Amino acid sequence: MAKEKCPHCGSPLSIRRGYRKTGYGRKKLRKCSRCRRKFTPDDGFLRMRFSPRVIREAVKLYKKGNSSSEVKRMLRNRQGVEVSRWSIIKWFRKYGSKS
Ligand SMILES: [Zn+2]
Q1: By the 8 A CB rule, do 42 and 28 touch?
Q2: CA 44–ligand 1 middle distance (angstroms)
Q3: Overall pTM surpassing 0.85 (yes/no)
Q4: How far is Cα 67 from Cα 61, in angstroms, rounded to an integer?
């Protein structure tokens, strides 16, 4: 898959090197077989404005049967973030089936 490509040299060949601790939790770490540099494959969360923790929480709350406006309010109270209702629905569609 294209997302597993090495960002340094573009080689599609890489091996799994465990995980790296980040502020957002664990990130997959891979090592390029060609240039031997380590990189983190794009897991779909990297370009998001909100942390995976917030997104996972939103999806979880929405799955429990809360409405998007309730989830929005809960996230504001618990995490101190302002999320649009549309974002919550979008996250649920994207990540809801995975967790
Ligand atoms: Zn490389």
Answers
A1: no
A2: 20
A3: no
A4: 9
* Alpha carbon of 62 to ligand 1 centroid (Å): 39
Cα(53) to centroid(ligand 1), Å: 29
For residues 76 and 40, what is the distance between their CA atoms, to the nearest angstrom?
30
Q: Where do the structural domains in the chain lie, given as residue ranges?
A: 2-39, 52-95
pLDDT in tens, 31-65: 999 999 998 876 655 555 788 889 999 999 999 99
The answer to whether the beta carbons of residues 83 and 58 sit under 8 Å apart is yes
Distance 80 CA to ligand 1 centre (A): 39
Ligand 1 centroid to residue 1 C-alpha, Å: 15
Count of other CB atoms within 10 angstroms of residue 75: 21
Residues in contact with 46: Cβ distance below 8 Å, sequence separation at least 6, in sequence order? 40
